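Cross-posted from the bioinformatics board.
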Amino acid sequence: MENKLKKVDLIFCKTCQDDIEVVRKALQRNPDEIINEIIDSGLKGRGGAGFPTGLKWKFARAQQSDIKYVVCNADEGEPGTFKDREILDVVLTTVLAGMAIFAYCIGAKEGYIYLRAEYNFMLNKLNATVEEFNKKLKDLGLSFEIQIRSGAGAYVCGEESALFESIEGKRGEPRNKPPFPTVVGLFGKPTVINNVETFVYTAMINHLGAARFKELGTQDSRGSKVFSISGDTPKAGIYELELGMTVEDFVKEFGDGDTKAVQVGGASGHCVPRKKFENTIIGFEGIPTGGSMMLFNSSRSMYNVLKDYLEFFTEESCGQCTPCRVGCQQLLKGIEAVKRGERPASYLEELKKLAQSMRIAAKCGLGQSVANPFISIVDNFKEEIIY
Amino acid sequence: MSNYMVNLKINNIPVSVPEGTTILDAAKKLNFRIPTLCYHEDLSVAGNCRVCVVEQVGARLLQAACAVPVSEGMEILTNSTKVRQARKHIIELLLSEHRADCTECYKNGNCELQDLAHEYGVNQHLFIDLARKRNYTIDRSSPSIIKDDSRCIRCQRCVRTCDELQGVSALAVAYKGDHQKISTFFEHPMFEVVCTNCGQCINRCPTGALIEKTYIEEVWDALNDPNKHVVVQTAPAVRIGLGEVLGYDPGERVTGKMVTALKLLGFDSVLDTDFTADLTIMEEGTELLTRLKKALVDKEPVALPMMTSCSPGWIKFQEHLFPNLLDNLSTCKSPQQMFGALAKTYYAQKRGIDPKNIVSVSIMPCTAKKFEANRPEMRASGYQDVDYVLTTRELGLMIKQAGIDFMKLPDSPYDSIMGESTGAGVIFGATGGVMEAALRTAYEIVTGREVPFRNLNITPVRGFEGIREATVKIEGCLPEWSFLEGVELKVAVAHGLANAKKLMQAVSDGTVSYHFIEVMACPGGCLGGGGQPIPTNLEIRSKRAEAIYAEDESMPLRKSHENPEVHMIYQEFLGKPLSHKSHDLLHTHYKARKRY
């Protein structure tokens, strides 16, 4: 069978990198035209949730407010994800260009990059680039200034409303929704928050046109995406790949010949077992991912993998809502108890029901998504959990 | 709220509500009660316990009814299979991290989690017990409040109460994940932080995580000790709150039954804090007039506006947050502490009892009073002036323990001496009451005439608005008060420490100018105190306030200076207001504390 996996080089290609020039050209266009092009491109948010980027921009533009914000989510905390770090390191100005174009579209004067605490080692370099870029924007006549805010190490602050709380100097806890950020966001003002990678693609679409972007991917998953590939693979690293491949395609390229499962989308994503490789598409029509792909070969205990994830969520839950705070602890203690024989194997069914409740009743995406790894691992590797 | 109406269906029944209404309130309109835990009418919406989740037809996620506003065409199911399963799970999860040994809990029988567990028939042991494995701390350092983390369900009502209603933020969320907890600044003990002991957190805690420190057993021991003479004083707001613990609806006046019950419990003398409330008016009113004279006539530097000092939560708040304004506080002790100082001096002498054998108990709507009684300043009699402070709730419990059928009790009058009071003393229990009582007396002292308000009801200082102000023009002064002729006495009243904070900031900044300010730490004043029956909300507090004012109107005497026992104590013992003896027994000073 032909391997449909296709490596792409849109993001890191250095041939087209005069980002200020991209901004300058955008400023000559009508904002609606720019937004319509983003809508036309089919670009969906690259952070994982996959909300259509152009629509988000359109909503924010429609909001009447004297102050609006553009926020770049660089709180890359999902276990197994490290592509934003590379993007920031290599093509930060493209990210800034995406933010600036967007600021122009909605009339925002201030932008923030929320950088995960663990990336503070890059801070000096990033700040210098941002400062220089701000100056150039000023020279272009665009009144928009970007600043970087550093996180404090909480995974939950990658959730957009918790991120706002954190920038505002409060405890990073997700807010109730609605209202959504495009209506009430940072400092109570309409805000568009996008992932680092999303901003890069918006700049690239501006530069290359929607048509070039649409050539790639599928109906539901347009374009390419940057993947962070780790685990049992001889080719760990960062790759930009066209969307729409199957896990099978992916494993053929990146597996070590003994891959038994791929965790798509990080700890909060889904575990795909070997028997489902062939029929599982990586993308919004199949399993979406913020970019994390972890490969496990037959030497790995899926019990340990799940336990590790649950320990992570138990610690990284903000703790405010019951389903997530207590639910994570119960899932963790539950599989431990089953493993030790303190609870019957049938208890796993109770825990799956609990995970389903967490999926629909938790306050934010963190608590809701714990069910993804839990159910997919328990269903596909039940024997490993029990024995 | 908008005038625009939104149409939706709840459990297939159409309903139309104003835009912005939450699903919870819309359901209420159709008489569907959706269970809640973190929600409280007095507080902002948290949406964190998730017990109120409901199904929105067509939506992937359940919605938190307390937090989500209705939208056009919405179809809500409040009791679908999906909802019931999730809700049950949530209650079971809460129980798994809650030390649910209910029979050992002070809140047994008045616990919202217990009620829900019962209602939903949950399996308490479905999940693994997390509560017992943890090293929970039970903080008993405060003389007022016990904080038991093992019973905490992290609803954060206490955190929002302390922040939004009280502006104190002694309690806050610390850590995250499975370590998340409600804690204090650097996890210092409650006694060492900015906590004012107001107890508002207790009133809003759905479980037994925050309760008052009880002294019931100590009081039983005193009552059963034949060598002790046990006197009890009852604060104004207790008589309109106690009924709620003993089967009455809010707003029932049970003064006479309460006195009877206290006698049946074995107190040797049942006396009234209202007596020392009247005495406070004499002392504090004179103090105000003295300060005004110093300011207006003698042109001496004197701290104005003068501020009331009856509310011990408020006093500690000032000590922590506005030590620059401590001189503005009236030097008068609170009525409880005036009573305590007199019980072991004046009362002891008159009754011929050795003060060392007197046990002085007070029944208060307040938890801060427990702290106040233990302050080192409060030993003017040579002993601890007030030995034990019980809340309204504790008294209710003692009456139940004694097997007294409260509702069937006849009325009894207070004992004498120090049992006589006026309507002015009673209204100390409502926000604005001290101000009103002071004005009734001060105006009459200065002019020889009654305050120019119909039926003595000074309505501008009444009500529940957070900060209220009023101006009383003084006209037709008696000769010795002529320096006040034409003066417009400007007063302000605040209740709830968040309101007090705003007012104090304005005073500090010099953006407002008043002569006299009344502050009560608790929303609604003492009637909404931290020792009052649970639950509390605006409606309940309004009913209690109506009862207070009805009690005032029913009294034959309504002005403190007309209280015959007050006259008697000045003649026989104190001399005159602000006398040397008054200063020794009835006045004190406070000092600055740290800000955290």
